[in-house]
Design goal:
alpha/beta; Aspartate Aminotransferase, domain 2; 7-stranded mixed β-sheet
């Protein structure tokens, strides 16, 4: 590939990021595609080996191609001898699909072609010779394509073209060299679960309308509570739209448990409340305080040590200060896996302080909760079992597709937050009759199923398993957590924990591999000393021109510009993606995180070489 200095503002070639030691896995994908998708698999193979024309990647400005093709059939016979009429998408619209009269054949053909586009994208996502992103600036995309939401519907040919265009410019988050976010990778079984939940298109109101999904949520949350360490999986919980909402729910519960009258009378009925969290914690705690009317000034940030861990002595000091002022400490939020340093607060010490002062202890384990699945690394969360509530995001470290966040609460029964805080006065429906209990649990055909009335258990009334019409992204829920086992669809959640363990151990090993390479490598400086506790590896790349400078303000100012420029060049070439940021008195540094199941040692090597290639002339 050309050096960055000679082509900084140009895009790299499509195969510019290829790695000769890691050839494409196209042949393996073809075998899988042929086995499970029949005719679609054949199309994929033809595309991969260059025997078929690639789909058009132009935008909506191109006129319809008026392509005719044979309609699909639902007879399930292979080979199929049913007569098939031609389907011309240029003259078909959404109104011609089911439930329209005679809409079955065009519907099957259209959805099969959509699936064809999706499968091609899936294959490309794992191909190292393709770009992570085909980057264009916003004004370029706005000028190149027609973004107008017209009054008249577009035909199905145009819809398919838009699908192709959308994926063309989408970031391949499943690409082995995508390290930008905490949630990376593309799990195949989880993807299938996502398609399944969208097809079911039901709501999580009650067992009556979502029997399988409600039971999946019940057993999955119970298993997660068992893993935390609560005896028998006791407690309560709910899946939420994300970790920020889960943390806000924890604040809501803690406030209610201390002052239940706030539910009817509001904040005017309670004294000044104070929450405590570390200065490296997630900003969602302050957002939650603002949303609940507590106020961001009522969130006290506790000092951290050089590794980003909360200092317990400072926590106790600030609690006593608040009490002396007449304020009421109501919540301490410890972090298990901070987003930047990957630090784990000392949960046992925090638990002792919370017990001493009778304060609700919440653990934000959105990023670090996955380590509970690993026998080798779960010690880093020692003390989490003493928490009153825990946020845990399987869509991060565990590779479950977005979004899948759980709030887990230790308390259960009729006095639980779920029955008192968020439920209205409407009695829950019950079923009567006789029958066995399900695996000895509380769900029986005789008993009321108030525990399965999920529609009133959160700030949202209805919780779909995909996306709400409003555009708010909701969790794929327990189906994704339940099905996204590396062992496959047939494994139960309890049997699949070993698959998660292998994935997590591998990611931690890759992080240590990166650390060991760069800690003594010329041109690299670590942001903090010692091995990373999580997969977060924070470092500066120092170009040759800065290595001879003294460690002063001028050097820091110049060093602060290095990571942003290298990141911009990464985006331009599309070769890889990794994030950067400043923190406190630390100027911009790279924050490398590894949660991608497709990543290998060779991808880590490539990242180091790419950073050096793109930054050597700075």
């Amino acid at each position: 590939m050309a050096s960055p200095g000679s082509g900084f503002w140009s895009f790299g070639s499509e195969d510019g990021s290829g790695d000769p030691e890691n050839p494409s896995t196209a042949r393996a994908w073809c075998q899988v595609a042929q086995k499970f998708t029949g005719g679609i698999g054949n199309k994929l193979c033809a595309l991969l080996y260059g025997d078929a024309e690639k789909p058009a990647e132009s935008g909506g400005s191109e006129p319809p191609r008026a392509t005719s093709r044979k309609a699909a059939c639902a007879c399930n016979q292979k080979p199929c001898s049913c007569p098939k009429a031609d389907v011309n998408y240029a003259f078909l619209h959404a109104t011609d699909l089911l439930p329209a009269c005679d809409g079955e054949r065009p519907t099957l053909a259209f959805l099969q072609d959509v699936m064809d586009i999706l499968l091609q994208y899936v294959v490309k996502s794992f191909d190292r010779s393709t770009k992570v992103i085909d980057f264009h600036y916003p004004n370029e995309l706005l000028q190149e394509y027609n973004w107008e939401l017209a009054d008249q519907p577009q035909n199905l040919e145009e819809i398919l073209m838009h699908c192709q265009t959308t994926l063309k410019y989408a970031i391949k988050t499943g690409h082995p060299r995508y390290f930008n976010q905490l949630s990376t990778g593309l799990d195949m079984v989880g993807l299938a679960a996502d398609w399944l939940t969208s097809t079911a298109n039901t709501n999580m109101f009650t067992y009556e309308i979502a029997p399988v999904f409600v039971l999946l949520e019940y057993v999955t949350l119970k298993k997660m509570r068992e893993i935390i360490g609560w005896p028998g999986g006791s407690g309560d919980g709910i899946f939420s739209p994300g970790g920020a909402i889960s943390n806000m729910y924890a604040m809501l519960i803690a406030r209610f448990k201390m002052f239940p009258e706030v539910k009817e009378k509001g904040m005017a009925a309670v004294p000044r409340l104070i929450a405590f969290t570390s200065e490296h914690s997630h900003f969602s705690l302050k957002k939650g305080a603002a949303a609940l009317g507590i106020g961001t000034d009522s969130v006290i940030l506790i000092k951290c040590d050089e590794r980003g861990k909360m200092v317990p002595s400072d926590l106790e000091r600030r609690i006593l200060e608040a009490k002396q002022k007449g304020f009421v400490p109501f919540l301490v939020s410890a972090t298990a896996g901070t987003t930047v340093y990957g630090a784990f607060d000392p949960l046992l010490a925090v638990a002792d302080i919370c017990k001493k002062y009778k304060i609700w202890m919440h653990v934000d384990a959105a990023w670090g909760g996955g380590l509970l699945m690993s026998r080798k690394h779960k010690w880093k969360l020692s003390g989490v079992e003493r928490a009153n509530s825990v946020t845990w995001n399987p869509h991060k470290m565990m590779g479950v597709p977005l979004q899948c966040s759980a709030l887990l609460v230790r308390e259960e029964g009729q006095k639980s937050w779920l029955n008192q805080l968020l439920l209205s006065g409407t009695p829950a429906p019950a079923v009567s009759g006789s029958g066995e209990s399900i695996k000895g649990e509380i769900i029986t055909r005789k008993a009321p199923i108030s525990s399965l009335v999920r529609g009133k258990c959160g700030a949202e009334l209805g919780r779909r398993l995909a996306e709400k019409p409003s555009g708010e992204i909701n969790p794929i829920e327990s189906l994704l957590a339940f099905l996204s086992q590396p062992d496959g669809l047939s494994s139960s959640l309890s049997q699949g924990t070993t698959g998660f363990e292998a994935h997590i151990d591998k990611c931690l090993e890759l992080a240590e591999y990166l650390y060991n390479i760069i800690k003594n490598r010329e041109g690299y400086e670590m942001v903090f000393d010692g091995k990373p506790q999580h997969t977060n590896v924070c470092f500066w790349y120092v170009p040759p021109s800065l290595r001879v400078l003294e460690d002063n303000e001028e050097r820091m100012n110049r060093l602060s510009k290095v990571a942003p420029v290298i990141k911009a060049r990464m985006m331009e070439y599309g070769t890889t993606m990794v994030s950067y940021q400043p923190l406190g008195d630390k100027v911009n540094f790279f924050r490398m995180v590894i949660s991608n199941p497709a990543a290998t040692h060779q991808d880590i090597d490539f990242l180091i070489e790419e950073i050096e290639r793109l930054g050597q002339d700075l």
